[in-house]
From TrEMBL:
<comment type="pathway">
    <text>Amino-acid biosynthesis; L-lysine biosynthesis via DAP pathway; L-lysine from DL-2,6-diaminopimelate: step 1/1.</text>
</comment>
<keyword id="KW-0456">Lyase</keyword>
<feature type="binding site">
    <location>
        <begin position="285"/>
        <end position="288"/>
    </location>
    <ligand>
        <name>pyridoxal 5'-phosphate</name>
    </ligand>
</feature>
<feature type="domain" description="Orn/DAP/Arg decarboxylase 2 N-terminal">
    <location>
        <begin position="51"/>
        <end position="291"/>
    </location>
</feature>
<keyword id="KW-0210">Decarboxylase</keyword>
<comment type="similarity">
    <text>Belongs to the Orn/Lys/Arg decarboxylase class-II family. LysA subfamily.</text>
</comment>
<feature type="binding site">
    <location>
        <position position="288"/>
    </location>
    <ligand>
        <name>substrate</name>
    </ligand>
</feature>
<feature type="binding site">
    <location>
        <position position="355"/>
    </location>
    <ligand>
        <name>substrate</name>
    </ligand>
</feature>
<dbReference type="InterPro" id="IPR002986">
    <property type="entry name" value="DAP_deCOOHase_LysA"/>
</dbReference>
<protein>
    <recommendedName>
        <fullName>Diaminopimelate decarboxylase</fullName>
        <ecNumber>4.1.1.20</ecNumber>
    </recommendedName>
</protein>
<feature type="binding site">
    <location>
        <position position="323"/>
    </location>
    <ligand>
        <name>substrate</name>
    </ligand>
</feature>
<keyword id="KW-0663">Pyridoxal phosphate</keyword>
<comment type="subunit">
    <text>Homodimer.</text>
</comment>
<dbReference type="Pfam" id="PF02784">
    <property type="entry name" value="Orn_Arg_deC_N"/>
</dbReference>
<feature type="binding site">
    <location>
        <position position="243"/>
    </location>
    <ligand>
        <name>pyridoxal 5'-phosphate</name>
    </ligand>
</feature>
<feature type="binding site">
    <location>
        <position position="383"/>
    </location>
    <ligand>
        <name>substrate</name>
    </ligand>
</feature>
<dbReference type="InterPro" id="IPR022644">
    <property type="entry name" value="De-COase2_N"/>
</dbReference>
Length: 430
């Protein structure tokens, strides 16, 4: 197995950074999400450097949905990141981490009136998803006596090589306004009093392992910018979204590097804006690439059972990591306390949830396993805890952040009391 550079094996045990995973599990309990702050910083620096090597006016907006822990936000904020936010909760996390309102973009295809009012109140730019939303936003801003900067989200109708549930730039997607209709939306915005069209926004999908779709996306946005200039809108930013994938199967996946991504996107962008005679900021919205490989999920084996196959039954299920169940996603697994032992038997790593589909890893060759052994699920930093639930009334686990030799909780484990705290006894049951 090929491990990322921040994961190593010493004395038969898996380590993340300076820390022994077996020791972490004993100290904080399992299941346990463990995140390397150092790895997030390394990833951010590499992506930022790859882009700014081509063009200085780059802004990185963290895709907040990937991992919503405040400590993760603070790490990225300290490096100058903004955020792509989809909810009032993500706005609160971003602002609470020290990100400025001007470095946020409020995105989404179904914003509530309260969402629009919050964006206006905080001075956050809005990516408008429809003419209906545009009119509502103008009315909200008018009632507040303010003007709000906006972009429209363009649907570029681009096919991308990824899971259909996370391909957001398809013609059939719920997101955005078709490129052929976008000019009318900007014309309407120009006629309104309380919105100010200043940018263009697009996002074509997630976990994309090719660079060509991003280059095609930029071509579409340059064409849109050309038409906008003709009607008097000079974009101050062009936001190409995120979507750069990571190699969940390191032995077989070929994932583009940030340098390859920049090498494909930036020449198209630079030529396009040069031809148009403009110098907008380029915004990108990475999520998975920044945090995906920073985190492992540690889970303890409860029992081993042989039936039609051999199951390693662990204490984490799809309540904590739903990607394998929802997307048939692949995550590498390591026997953390037997990390250098030979793989001798095929196991399926299964969770405690009352669903047949609660399988974290199917048919993996691993060392001889027994109750009490520790499994590490790799690359769990994006859409792991962020998509977790309390299904089967299971409290969610703790999260730990590592920085050098330091380790501390960044989220305590939930309790049964946390499950019942929001519940209210109805009057006729008192």
């Amino acid at each position: 197995m090929i491990l990322p550079s921040h994961l190593t094996v010493r004395d038969g045990r898996l380590r993340i950074g300076e820390h022994d995973t077996v020791d972490l599990a004993e100290r904080f309990g399992t299941p346990l999400y463990v995140t390397s702050e150092d790895r997030i910083r390394e990833n951010f620096g590499r992506l930022s450097g790859a882009l700014t090597a081509h063009y200085p006016k780059i802004r990185i907006l963290y895709a907040a949905k990937a991992n919503g822990n405040l400590a993760v936000f603070k790490t990225l904020a300290s490096m100058g990141a903004g955020a792509d936010v989809f909810s009032a909760g993500e706005v609160a996390l971003a602002l609470g981490s020290g990100m400025r309102p001007a470095s946020l973009l409020f995105n989404g295809s179904s914003k509530t009136p309260a969402d629009l009012a919050l964006a206006v109140e905080k001075g956050i730019r809005v990516s408008v998803d429809s003419p209906d939303e545009l009119r509502q936003l103008d009315a909200v801003a008018g009632e507040a006596g303010r003007t709000v900067d906006i972009a429209f989200r363009v649907n570029p109708a681009i096919e991308v090589p990824t899971h259909p549930k996370i391909a957001t730039g398809l013609a059939t997607s719920k997101f955005g306004i078709p490129a052929g209709a976008i000019l009318d939306a900007y014309r309407e915005a120009l006629a309104l009093e309380h919105v100010n069209p200043v940018g263009i926004h697009c996002h074509i999908g997630s976990q994309i392992l090719a660079v060509e779709p991003f280059a095609r996306e930029v071509e579409v946005l340059i064409d849109v910018a050309r038409d906008l200039i003709d009607i008097g809108v000079e974009p101050s930013f062009i936001d190409i979204g995120g979507g750069l994938g990571i190699p969940y199967r390191r032995e077989t996946d070929r994932a583009p590097t940030p340098e390859e991504y920049a090498g494909a996107v930036m020449p198209v962008f630079k030529k396009g804006i040069k031809d148009l005679g403009i110098e907008p900021e380029l915004w990108v919205e990475p999520g998975r690439w920044l945090v995906g490989d920073s985190t492992i999920l540690l889970t303890r084996i409860n029992s081993v059972k042989t039936a039609h196959k051999t199951f390693a039954n662990v204490d984490a299920g799809f309540n904590l990591l739903i990607r394998p169940t929802m997307y048939d996603s692949y995550h590498e697994v390591v026997a953390a306390n037997k990390a250098d032992a030979p793989a001798v038997r095929e196991y399926s790593v299964t969770g405690p949830i009352c669903e047949t589909g609660d399988i974290l890893a199917k048919d993996r060759m691993l060392p001889e396993l027994a109750a009490g052994d520790l499994i590490a699920v790799l690359d769990a930093g994006a859409y792991g805890f962020a998509m977790s639930s309390q299904y089967n009334s299971r409290p969610r686990c703790a999260e730990v952040l590592l920085a050098g030799e330091k380790a501390a909780l960044m989220r305590r484990a939930e309790t049964i009391d946390d499950l019942t705290a929001p519940m209210v006894t109805v009057p006729w049951q008192e």
